[in-house]
Amino acid sequence: MSTSWIVIGVIVLLVLFAFGAYNRLVALGQRVSQAFADIDVQLKQRHDLIPNLVEIVKGYAAHERGTLDDVIKARNSAISAQGPAQVSAAENQLSGALGRLIALSEAYPDLKANANFQQLASELSDLENKIAASRRFFNNAVQEYNTGIQQMPAALFAGMFGFTRKDFFDLGASRTEVEAAPSVKF
């Protein structure tokens, strides 16, 4: 009789542990989703700012059509991207194109002196800082989640519960280009 109570006690403890592990992994997964949503909000603000910036530059540097088209194409690609990996790649392209667009202001002193351009460039710089902070928060949340599903003994239950590894919001091969762009100077 006492052996059966011990077995029942061990089973109850395992079930309670499994519930605890499941709830912890769900919370970590929700944190990753929330962090990605925060990035998405910042990126949408960035996407909304770009057409205004392009229009101002177009007025001063109309013959720089290739750069302007690259920015619009990269913006459209970034808007339609889904999931951290696609969004990261598309945003890297957009950052490079924006860097080239901002660099045009150096060649056009009138553009550089334009108050609207200065305001939009300042907003863009501020958004870039917010995006970088959101990316760091997201990558930290992903690291905690991935660690949580790989640590013992939760790793025994994670696969059963459908928890899989998440991807980081990585800058990839263009890391140096993205870190340098956009450089806003007045």
Explain what this protein looks like in three dimensions.
The longest helix has 59 residues, at 2-60. The protein has a single domain, classed as de novo design (two linked rop proteins) (Up-down Bundle). Residues 182-186 have low confidence and may be disordered. It is mainly alpha-helical and 186 residues long. Helix content is 83%, strand content 0%. The chain contains 7 helices and no strands. This is LemA family protein. Keywords: Membrane, Transmembrane, Transmembrane helix.
Instruction: Report the portion of residues in β strands.
Output: under 5%
**SSE string:** HHHHHHH
CATH superfamily heading: LemA-like domain
Query: How many separate helices?
Result: 7
- Architecture, according to CATH? Up-down Bundle
Structure summary, number of beta strands: 0
Instruction: Report mean pLDDT, rounded to a whole number.
Output: 84
State the separation between the terminal residues, measured CA to CA: 83 Å
